[in-house]
User: What shape does this take?
Amino acid sequence: MQDFTVSRRALMMGAAATTAWLASPWRAMAQTVSQASAVLPDRLERLLQMMTTEEKAGQLTLMAAAWSGGAATTLNPAGNGASFSEQLEQARQGRLTGVFNGNGAEMARQMQIAVMRDSRLKIPLIFAADVIHGMRTVFPVPLGEAASFEPELARRTARAAAIEASAAGIDWTFAPMVDIARDARWGRGVEGSGEDVLLGCDMAAARVKGFQGADLTDQRHVLACAKHFAAYGAAEGGLDYNTVDISERSLRDVYFPPFEAALDAGALSVMASFNELSGVPATANSWLLDDVLHKEWQFNGFVVSDYTGDEELIAHGFASDAREATKLAFMAGCDMSMQSGYYIAHLPSLVAAGEVPMARLDEAVRRVLMIKHKLGLFDDPFRRIDPKREASRIRTPAMLELAREAGRRSIVMLKNDGDLLPLPRTGKKIALIGPFASGQHDLVGPWNVYGTDADAVDLATGVRAAVKDESAVTVTLGSDIDAPLPGGIEAAVAAAKAADVVILAIGESTNMSGEAQSRTSITVPESQQALAEAVAATGTPIIILLKNGRALALQGAVRDAPAILVSWFLGSESGHASADILFGAESPSARLPVSFPYATGQAPYYYAHKSTGRPNPDGPLTEYKAHYRKYPNSALYPFGHGLTYGDIDYVDLHIESDRLPWDGALNLRATISNRGARAAEEVVQLYIHDAAASITQPVRELKAYRKIALKPGESRDVLFQLTRSDLLFIGQDMQRTVEPGLFRIWIAPSAEADGLSGSFMLMPQ
Ligand code: BGC
Assistant: This one.
């Protein structure tokens, strides 16, 4: 077995990092200054020297904006009860580094003026916000956008969001959320890119590049924040905020890489996660925040707590009071406190008592000042604050067109028996049924602070705009989202009977996913399932159009419908984007970024699971093999699955050699054909499996993917190249390692499809 170290980061991995797992609070307290201190320009270093301890603590204190009015305030109970005028006063006194989720350029203007005119040191405020999937123009939820398998699309929508946000005075977005999410019960999977490490890394990097651009001083760019560090998505039972207890290897193999990708792409802030990690809450976990982030990865941005994350150390049972919580979080490497007010309240006395070294305080302040400097705020504190620009840059036609494009490229077609889709624009009576058939609700989806459903296009509007004769479309709700509607099923059955085809728009409401929205059953809510059963019994063909923020376990008439589309929450242009796919303006090109299991009880189900010693072979379930009583250990619709309106055939695989030399490369060529009559796009996926290794490896792992366009009748060769750096895993010593031996490969349309397969040997050095 040979060890092979590839990345710059891995090169810097020392013994200290590998043995420091499970840092204790005492260890955290003993810790002093990390090596990754920011070096400030002279004038800022002089500024730092002039600051009082209180002013330093102020630079580490971020509060929810107290400015009233608008949707953002419903998310932010006013900052610790402060009124806007009180908050202005705190800013003047240097007790605030900035605010988040405020309302626009006018608020920012008033606050920045107060600081620049009246504060002692005139350190510009930073304005932050949760701009997760668009601002006023809302793009598909990140999970939906990940389904596009187009990082470039994610870069473009992040850039567009940055353009709108920065016009409204925002310098810093709390995005991207890069948590790998493998348990569909957990509601926050909707904010990320799903279950896969490679797709997660690509999307993380693309979004950071879109938000930050090449030059952070540009008034169209905003600072990105990779969150939530770390392993927030691995919460036990899929319960938000819950305990995480996983191996260091899983962290390094699965949960860390998207953070590394975000930092490599330039992200300069990181948010600590709410969860504890094997006994030590992330907010006070010096192994995570200092050893890994700063020392090992040489990150020189700053770490912000999540909302009251430092305060929550008390509820975790890790700190006994506010003062201790402050000390533990701060000394572990959490540079900035969000919303608790703990740092401004307790850091000065902790420093005075010698319990927190001034050097640690200076280190954290340097990091924050450095980022404000990189954002260009010291040169022009008003560079992103211009109410005129705010009005003109929002919801432009180009932005809305991008939202529509991103929307249709996020829709996954799971099934299309008998080519029921696409629908013709004329000649068919269409019954649009379900709680999401019409109405401006549940369109923009969870974690959207600024966009509104009232500005978004609903399904009925989109469908009516797509057909030639609007009178051919009827709309019937049939059921409420989570409860029956009196007479709803009867009306829906009548509508279905009178139609040639039903579009059944069912699934989850906005509130069923997102923060704190864990579900014990990942099914279509009961009342809607009953609606689907009744409509299916009419015999009219049904197209299921799912609205969802997670993988669902489809049952009964929903599962058995001839056509199923997964449409997530598509944002501002929701209805038009859906109609583009329903009526064939474009073939569906998205693929599942999360596996849809057969049943909730499989959670956490993900394709890259291990084999076990008793895998159940394909075919019938066999006694004493790894499967459930009723279901196999696989997905109904696995990661990567998705159909198009073309008819795609994986024809031929050519593997250049059956040996990959240690320092060489192996070329693979697959021929993919579109035998159908419509243009299509296919996401060709390359998976590997390391047949025998010193650490057991997943049954399959995605190593590359290509989205290709195929005209009717067209065949194309898709080329991949593998080198040994594609075969790395975290070895027994926690270093990235690769071992010679047999590797299986698949070039396939999903993680569980046979596709084209072969194997090769990685030869020893
Ligand atoms: C969420 C973060 C978010 C923060 C600020 C928290 O509840 O976990 O993702 O950025 O609030 O709004």
